[in-house]
Amino acid sequence: MDKCTENENNLKIVRKVTWVGAFLNVMLSAVKISVGFFAMSQSLIADGFHSLSDLITDGAVIIGSRFWGIEQDEKHPYGHQRLETMISLFIAFLLAVVACGIAWKAIYTMHDKSSAPPRMIAFYVALISIVTKEALYRWTVKRGKSIGSMALVSNAWHHRSDALSSIPVAIAIVASFFFPELTYLDHIAAIIVSAMLLKAAFSIAAPCISQIMDVQGDRHLAEILKELEQNEPKIDEFHKIRSRTSGSSIFVDLHMLVNPLMSVADSHALTKTVEKKLKDHNADIVDVTIHVEPSNTD
Predict the structure, then answer these.
(1) In terms of Cα–Cα distance, which of 212, 144, 167, 141 is closest to 47?
(2) Which region holds residue 240: left if phi is over 0, alpha if psi is between -120 and 50, else beta?
């Protein structure tokens, strides 16, 4: 399978998985909000609107995936994969906003007292939400990692955030139903969840920021090239080794020193050998630029 076909298949997987998530978000939102009103559970209603907010990131991934898979053009010689990085940063930002919102509301309403305990049906809906969204998170992460999609893995964390946000809802419902004096547990759990979400947002944002700063895309390149130096007598040395990541693709450029009497044809064949070795080492490497230099001159 060529790289173009593989990219197209990966984008189809991204869109399919995200559409499934969007459909489940709509269904869960409708159930949570309607049952929340019926069961007199303010926390379940709020959780329903939280599920609805996940549609924003679903839409961002669906729309964004149609653009970051576009091939290179004159204005974008490295392709449009960096858009995937921007989408992932957007998701991380929304996760952080949700986390701060949960924490602020939990602290602000710490001493509020519910006029009446919610009905237990709200607990069962919260439980269904936890199980469903955690399963959706695991499936989305697995599919995202299998195709190397940072945006899909990032969006999966929004599913987990929804599962985590349902935990304090379930605790609050049970606590207020059986022990009305322990309703503050809901707020404590919400603060813990917000801290977990902030950590998730940081975990998503950190590699995206590294990409924007053009941090080395593959830390093991020097080791692979050192091995090539030792096993290929025609190569004298590699230096100025650089790599950067754009979306899920890695671009590499380096300088290769060879015998100054080597023919152009032989040196070209040697660059193809090096390129194949690097791409075999890391399937995410899509382009290798090699500058050939004579080894006995500056």
Answers:
(1) 167
(2) left
Domain count, the chain: 2
State which H helix or E strand residue 254 sits in: strand 249-258
CATH number, residue 263: 3.30.70.1350
Q: CB of 253 within 8 A of CB of 218? A: no
Q: Are residues 202 and 234 in the same domain?
A: no
- Same domain? For 67 and 154 the reply is yes
The total of other beta-carbon atoms located within 10 Å of residue 245's CB is 24
Is 141 within 8 Å of 232 (Cβ atoms)? no
User: pTM to 2 decimals?
Assistant: 0.63
Side-by-side strand order, sheet with 285-294: 235-246, 249-258, 285-294
**Mind listing the pLDDT tens digit for each residue in 32-86?**
889 988 887 767 877 777 777 677 667 767 766 666 666 666 776 666 677 777 8
Residue 46 is part of which domain span?
A: 3-212
* Same domain membership, residue 225 and residue 205: no
